[in-house]
Amino acid sequence: MREVYFIKQNKEKWLGIEQVIQGKIKKNPDDLSSLYINLINDLSFAQTYYPKSNTTVYLNHLSSQIFQKIYKTKRVEENRLIYFFRTEVPLLVYQYRRYLMYAFLFFILFTSIGVLSAIYDKDFANIILGESYVNETIENIKNNNAVGIYQSGSTWGSTIGIIFNNIQVGAKLYMYGIAGGVGTLFALLSNSVMLGSFQYFFYEYGALKESARGIWLHGVFEIFAMVVEAMCGLILGASILFPGTFSRFNSFKRGFKDSFKIFLSTIPFTICAGIIEGYVTRHALKMPLALNIVIIFSSLAIIGFYYFVYPSIVNKKINNQINDTVL
């Protein structure tokens, strides 16, 4: 059978399955299983006769989505929150993994701009960070206390304020994506340039090592989460600009639903960053260096694994279950 005829013959059925996945059409578990088996037959046929076709890629993706829907229906005994973080979010991160790559590339580019701006304009740090902050930090560096700025205020009061501020920043990075992703990139530019000039400022005053011992205790979770939140904004923007086979409104709804779930997954890391900044960072230079290193790299390993490695593991597991069903 020619591929064009195969598509024409099954197009309406596949579009109907898309509507089931989107929740526009409700099906009971038995009907879902029947749809899944039918779709798997189409996928097997496509893998046999059109192995390198976009049709095969599309059907594989559709099969994964309908399988997830069945899997969620059957796993009602599992805690919904556990399923959300353990399976649902990782699968979404894997599906939109290229946007995570884009977000990190923009982050690196914008941070580099901040560093270069600080190198060639000696007043740049004053403009970006504020003159009072710069002057206070210079005094702290002279007193061998580069992270002294984090020692002001009460621990619990600082923690609450920091958490709410970081959530607000993350929400802006995400919601500004509604402007086609441009707003997200502007917000990421602002924060990244500030980070780049901030780090170069400490380097210029010979306190980069001391500052890193404190700043990156909480900064790993905070900055990594910020990039993931930017990823969510880019997904939201792309859903508007590139609707694909969906109507623009349906594409936006789908993009918002998926990106919001990923955004919610950053909240625990943002809260952890606030707690560390409020309770631990103020003691950074009094702690053994080994402890600083353990906290920093443990944080990096945890959040890096969750967003870079674990999604591939979950996706592979789901695909293996699909293949076992086909066989």
TrEMBL record:
Xref: Pfam families: SpoIIM
Xref: InterPro entries: SpoIIM-like
Organism: Chryseobacterium rhizosphaerae
Protein known as: Membrane protein SpoIIM required for sporulation
Positions of transmembrane segments: 99-120, 173-203, 215-242, 262-280, 289-309
Keywords: Membrane, Transmembrane, Transmembrane helix
UniProt key word Acetylation: no
